[in-house]
Design brief:
about 500 residues, alpha/beta, 6-stranded antiparallel beta barrel, 5-stranded parallel β-sheet, 15 helices, 19 strands
Length: about 500
């Protein structure tokens, strides 16, 4: 599964020929220095590419259309070094289709008090030129990210880097294809949604297959391939027999190995990047996919349980976005299961029947085989672990009938107070911001689902920027949330998105 592509971002500087050739030469040289220095920071997840200074309507339009056609270009960063008449940008901006960042900076960090003259002022007037450019982008109602500050400031560089990940998420969204094994869990509302509108809005393709069509691929997997993968499992994970016969245990693990291989071959052949399953429709499968799905998620596939295609697509989206993050801590589908409501120790135990991605694991990962009442099949093998501590975000994409809403909650992941030896599933435990009670109330008021796409490696700002670029509503639940204000914001959203 491909989790990172060789994307690049173009750096386009605006100017005009009013100030002469010497000024334009300096503008180009300054832009090259900025690009080289930004690339040298090691902070940017993707390469920044310098482009010749844009000074005419024709060149601006040509450059933006070249960016549209370049499959490796994931977005354009613009900066006005001098004054650049904004009407020159109209046609290019009208035809541009990819993410846009406006970097409001200037080459010099400090005013050169002893030497500054009008030549310097004319050449270094980003404070003037960026306002002219910003006006036309706003008037044209074009969504863009604005980052303000000196280009050498690490905080500015980090914001650019964060936007790059979001931009890749926008580009990759149109490549997401979700394979639905059977249908949604019967009578469940929140996992449903308008798949046609999702394709129009996000570019997602969501297709259903009879479970037995995929089960045939599982049955076709050779014993040799199964044994090879089982050996990999046994080398990589702790084996917890817990009184079970070793041979019988291994046979159960082998079933998951066959499912992993068969599912992955089907996904690769049909070019799908995410998958959903449903425990109520397993057909010829001997077990509910557990360990196999966990491994597929670890490889970069999205996953949603009980037919939840929105979560599957969001997990895939967030995995491709975080592929450019150094020392990433992990991304997974999770589900709100049960609460701890002891004062001072509040939190939500996150888990699922089986399918939690091991990228979020902290410490040893074990294989267990345990009964599962849902699915009416033999005891499935699964990976069991606890998650890392630290800050993360949980997101829920819901269909409100007339629009999609992305709910974004900052959460703090913790260790549970005591071990849970009888719970044979992977778990995470977090307290939502601003606290358990306000966080849960706001989530419910917003219509948030019980399944979430969770990551340690993106911020609420990044996912909110993605929602803005996709033209959908985003609501934030964080340290500043107050229920009265939150309800007002939801009411305003009803009016704005009507």
């Amino acid at each position: 599964m491909i989790t990172k592509k060789d994307y690049k971002f173009w750096f386009c500087t605006g100017s005009q020929d009013l100030y002469g050739d010497e000024c334009l030469k300096n503008v180009a040289e300054h832009a090259k220095i900025i690009v080289d220095k930004l690339n040298a920071t090691g902070i940017l997840p993707y390469e920044l590419v310098w482009k010749p200074t844009l000074i005419t309507n024709e060149l601006i339009r040509k450059t933006f259309n070249e960016a549209n056609l370049d499959e490796n270009c994931a977005g354009v960063i613009t900066w006005m070094h001098t004054f650049s008449p904004a009407k020159s940008w109209i046609l290019g901006l009208q035809e541009y289709k990819k993410p846009l960042l406006h970097l409001h900076t200037q080459f010099n960090e400090e005013i050169p008090y002893d030497t500054i003259d009008m030549d310097f002022m004319n050449e270094n007037q980003s404070a003037h030129g960026d306002r002219e450019y910003g006006h036309i982008v706003s008037r044209m109602r074009i969504e863009r990210k604005v980052v303000v500050g000196h280009w050498s400031d690490p905080g500015v560089v980090k914001r650019i880097a964060g936007w790059m990940l979001t931009a890749v998420g926008v580009i990759e969204s149109s490549h997401i294809r979700v394979m639905r094994v059977a249908d949604n869990m019967r009578n469940v509302a929140v996992t449903e949604g308008d798949k046609v509108e999702a394709q129009i809005k996000f570019g997602w393709e969501i297709d259903a297959y009879p479970v037995n069509e995929i089960a045939e691929r599982v049955s076709d997997v050779s014993e040799a391939d199964i044994n090879t993968l089982v050996e990999e499992y046994y080398d990589k994970y702790e084996i917890l027999l817990e009184g079970r016969d070793e041979k019988e245990f291994r046979e159960h693990v082998a079933v998951q190995a066959a499912i992993e291989i068969g599912f992955e071959r089907f996904l690769e052949e049909k070019n799908y990047s995410a998958i959903v399953t449903h425990f109520g429709d397993l057909g010829a499968l001997k077990q509910l996919p557990g360990l196999s799905i966990q491994r597929l998620m670890e490889k970069g596939y999205g996953f949603g349980a009980e037919g939840d295609w929105k979560v599957a697509a969001m997990v895939r989206l967030m995995k491709i976005m975080t592929a450019g993050v150094k020392d990433a801590k992990g991304t997974s589908m999770l589900e709100d299961y049960t609460y701890n409501l002891v004062k001072g120790k509040e939190g939500i135990l996150e888990a699922h029947m089986l399918e939690i991605c091991p990228t979020i694991a902290d410490g040893p990962i074990s294989i267990k085989c345990c009964p599962l009442s849902m699915g009416d099949r033999e005891d499935p093998a699964r990976l069991v672990f606890t998650s890392k501590e630290g800050h993360g975000i949980a997101v829920s994409l819901i269909d409100l009938g007339n629009r999609f809403r992305l709910i974004i909650n900052d959460v703090e992941c913790k260790k549970v107070e005591k071990p849970m030896p009888k719970l044979p599933v992977a778990t995470a435990f977090w307290t939502p911001e601003p606290d358990m009670y306000v966080g849960a109330e706001a989530w419910i008021l917003a219509g948030g689902a019980h399944h979430t796409a969770f990551t340690y490696d993106l911020t609420a700002e990044q996912m909110g920027d993605w929602a803005s670029m996709m033209g959908i509503e985003a609501v934030y639940i964080d340290k500043d949330t107050k229920i009265r204000d939150f309800k007002r914001d939801l009411a305003l959203g009803e009016v704005f998105y009507r």
